[in-house]
Amino acid sequence: MSAPPPPEKPLKVMPWWLALLGLLLAVALGWLALDRLLAEADRATQPDARATLRVDAIRTGLTVVAGTGGGLALLLAARRQWISERGQRHQEAVADRDQAHRDRVQAHAETVAEAAARHQERQATAAEHDAAERRLTELYVRAIELVGSDNPAVRLGGLHALERLGQDNPGQRPTTVAVLCAYLRMPASDDPRENEVRRTAQRTLTRHLRAAEADTWWPGIALDLTGARLDGFDAAGCTLVDLDLTGAVCTGTTSFAGAVTHGRLRLTAEFTDVVFDDLTGDADLVLDDARITGRAGFDRADLGGELTCRGASFGEVSFREATLRQPSSFDRATFAGPATFREAQFLSGLSMEHTTFGGYAGFHRARFADLALFRWTEFGEEAWFEGARFEGGTNFGRAVFHGRARFEGASLARRPLVDRARASTAVTHLWPPDVTVTRRDGDWLVLTDP
To answer: pLDDT tens, 197-240?
Structure first.
């Protein structure tokens, strides 16, 4: 905004006596000029010349008076013109100030109107938000009431209402999932209708975790199912983030086939059968102390995070063509049935210390790119390492081979450490070239490092 112009000095009114003084000055000048000229005319010697000079003197005096008066009149006219111009400038300045004031008033009015409009919009938005929140709250409370009903059919309706609430309102999806998980964590009865309600809750969770179904996908949702009882939990093809099944009991076949994992999957639970075939992702898989009474399949899985199965117990397990990119630990694990690691790739360290293989242990053409530890491992039946590649250090110290041990075609980048491993004399073994059988101890062969 430009600075206002400096105020003009007030115009003073010319007093009347100043005009009278000018008139008297003109008369005085004319009288003085006439007196001087008449005095000069009186000095003439000729009477005719004296008369002529006196007439000229009178004329000149009158001319001086007229000229002085005319000059004063001209000054007055100039002053009148100056006053007129100043008045014009003043009117223009006043008009400019009035226009500037009107512009400021208009701008202020527009600003006030805009502020009022924005305030009304905020009020309308807040009212809409409050109405939407009240509606969501009412729907949520109603759905929770339905889920808490004693009637299984009513509970089914509540689950569908919760699902619709989460589908239509992305901000409510974490809450919806938390409620569904909490429902599955509650104690389950033996009522078949209740089992159907729980399976519906499971399907509701997994249905929205499949990225392939873009219209219904709820990304980035974590599942807290600690202590839950699940039956046939099917998360095949889902995108799983921070799944927690600690203490859960999973009956039937639990499937993570083709799932994509991120974060950390805590799977210290009881499983009948569990499938991880074709699983990918960078999540850490924690199966410490897990109990799998049936089959566990990791065929063609590509695990980008760590796999820990410390103290876990397996029935039958298969890691055919699996790729484990981070360190893997099966310390103190128990394999009651066949354990197949055919063509598996352990790109980082593998530890199977104090591990028990009750059945067949097959590592055909497996690749161990880093340290492989089998210390104190007990092989109850055949242990086949045919065609396996040991690219790092290998340690079978104090291992026990009850069945045949075969390393036919295996390649070892370093001499394996056996450190008094034992093998049964009842079967024929095929050891790597650098392994030395130093003596017999009853029914056992004792292996020592050269």
So the answer is: 999 999 999 999 998 777 889 998 999 999 999 999 999 999 99
**Inter-axis angle of helices 47-147 and 173-185, to 10 degrees?**
20
- Look at residue 7 in the predicted model and tell me its pLDDT: 60
Q: Cα separation of 338 and 233, whole Å?
A: 24
User: Which contacts (CB < 8 Å, 24+ apart) does range 183-191 have?
Assistant: 183/147, 183/159, 184/225, 184/228, 184/229, 184/230, 185/224, 185/225, 185/226, 185/227, 185/228, 187/229, 188/229, 191/152
The one-letter code for the residue type at 214 is: A
Angle of CA points 337, 343, 348, to nearest 5°: 95
Q: How far apart are alpha carbons 95 and 334 in whole angstroms?
A: 100
Q: Please state whether 20 falls in left (phi above 0), alpha (psi between -120 and 50) or beta.
A: alpha
Nearest CA to 271 out of 287, 289, 288, 294 is that of 294
Phi, psi of 180 (to 5 degrees): -60, -45
What is the model's pTM? Answer: 0.74
188: number of Cβ within 10 Å: 16
CA proximity to 361, closest of 345, 385, 344: 385
